[in-house]
Amino acid sequence: MELFFIFVAIVLTQNFVLHYFLGICPFLGVSDEMEAAFGMGIATTFVMTLTAIITWNINNFILEGFGVEFLEYVSFILVIASLVQLVEMFLKKYVPELYQTLGIYLPLITTNCAVMGLALFMVLRDYNFVQSAIFGFGAGVGFTLALIIMAGIRSELMEDAIPEPFRGTGITLLTAGLLALAFMGFSGLVPV
Amino acid sequence: MLTDFIKGIWKENPVFVQVLGMCPTLAVTTSLINGLSMGLATTFVLVASGLAISALRKVIPDQVRIASFMIIIASFVTVVKLLFEAHIPTISTQLGPYLPLIVTNCIILGRQEAFASKEPVSRSLMDALGMGLGFAFALVVLGSVRELFYQGTIADVEILGSWYKSMIIMVQPAGAFISLSILVALFKKISSRG
Fold it and tell me: Which residues, in sequence order, are bridge partners of residue B158?
């Protein structure tokens, strides 16, 4: 039950994008088309789940084991960067069809603060191994959900008459604000 | 040289014009003080890593440059985090994980890639200072607006008087998105007229 709550919380009530403001750059930048948003979401979910699993081990066995917690940020960012590279090479060799679809989004994930944020939140909340894996996967699902909803709304928005200063970033942020407001409606789902 | 400095603050403002570094911009600007500390911390990392990378630009091999940049940036972020924890622990707790998240702030990597890795040290310093202060300026503006409409104060000084009922939405995520949206639109309006 507890694992289920972690999952629901991170997908709906504490959505990474709409509650913690993590991964806003791809959220505002990439999400114009449904298909692209979905591809980006899947690739990110994949990397996030792996990041959660690997950084948990690094944090518990290497950083805490040797008492070098101050290396946290340096080692996390290295893990994420090399993980993205590894995933890219693996897909290119063994699953070329998937690589074709996800290819262009993969390198962007390194600078997605949602991935780094995930690792930091995990350490901060003292999650155990299974909780971390669920948390990582859920964060990815929540990110994908937000990206897809936004892509859907934006494709409708393109036909509307928007006042000049609000075109582009302004209206996107306003939409995100209304979405965040809507997601607040989920807040009763998880006992605090 | 002066133009390198000025452009970051207004014409190419990282937040209002380039729309970079959105995560910390939205997350920590619940008050002026928080916005200011985040802005200054980011400026420090931007300047320090800009100097280091610009000085090392001929030594860093091209294939591994992104990874090298990330390690340099992450080291300076660790320095900032430890300094904050030691000297201003209350602000450090309030900023929480967003302080270490300066590592993935796209403004920092963006400036290294676009400027510091190609230009001499002195110009990179000006560019980093301008961008950093432009970022801090945006955070201070957004922080003041949100704090003012939340509880009628700016930097804990009462502005609107006791009749003002606090508006909790301003410190919640939705308020952050909506206030930034209006500020971006205002900025666009003002700069298109000038």
Answer: B153
Q: What's the number of CA atoms in the CB half-sphere (13 Å) around residue A151?
A: 19
pLDDT in tens, B23-71: 889 999 999 999 999 999 999 999 999 999 999 999 999 888 888 898 9
Structure tokens of A85?
């590279």
Alpha-carbon span A93 to A78, nearest angstrom: 23
Flag if B23 and A178 touch (Cβ within 8 Å): no
Of B79, B116, B118, give the one whose Cα is nearest residue B100: B79
* Run of H or E residues at B106: helix B106-111
Average pLDDT, rounded, for chain A: 87
Q: Distance (Å, rounded) from C-alpha A118 to C-alpha B67?
A: 20
Residue type at position B153: T
Domain count, chain A: 1
* Residue pairs spanning A and B at CB distance below 8 A: 121
Coil vs helix vs strand at B158: strand
Spans in chain B with pLDDT lower than 50: none
Minimum Cα–Cα distance from A180: chain B residue = B174
- Chain B residue numbers with beta carbons less than 8 Å from the beta carbon of A164 are 188
SS3 content of chain B, % helix, strand, coil (to 5): 75, 0, 25
Work out the pLDDT band at A103, boundaries 50, 70, 90: low
Which DSSP letter does residue A162 get? Answer: -
- Rounded to whole angstroms, the Cα distance separating B174 from B119 reads 40
Instruction: Look up the domain containing A138 and give its range.
Output: 32-157
Q: What are phi and psi of B153, to 5 degrees?
A: -125, 160
Is the residue at A164 inside a domain? no
Q: Where are the beta strands (DSSP E) in B20-122?
A: none
Nearest-by-Cβ selection for A173 from B23, B70, B181: B181
Residue whose pair of structure tokens reads 């694992």 in the numeric block: A3
Is A128 buried (19+), middle (13-18) or exposed (0-12) by CB count in 10 A? exposed
Give tens-digit pLDDT for A35-62: 778 888 888 898 899 999 999 999 999 9
